[in-house]
Amino acid sequence: MPELPEVEVVRAGLAPAVTGARVEGVEVLDARSIARHDGDAAAFEAALVGRTLGAPERRGKFLWVPIRDGADALLAHLGMSGQVLVREPGAAPDRHTRIRLLLDQPVHGPIEIRFADQRIFGGLAVRPLVAADGGRAVPDQAAHISLDPIDADFDASVVARRLRRRRQGVKAALLDQTLVSGIGNIYADEALWRSRLHYATPGERLTQARALALLADVRDVLEQALAEGGTSFDAQYVNVNGQAGYFEHSLHAYGRGGQPCHRCGATMVREPWANRSSTRCPRCQRRPRGIAV
DNA sequence: ACGAGCACCTGACTGC
DNA sequence: TGCAGTCAGGTGCTCG
Question: By its UniProt entry, which InterPro entries does this protein fall under (predicted)?
Answer without folding.
Answer: FPG_cat, FPG_Glyclase, FPG_N, H2TH_FPG, Ribosomal_uS13-like_H2TH, Znf_DNA_glyclase/AP_lyase
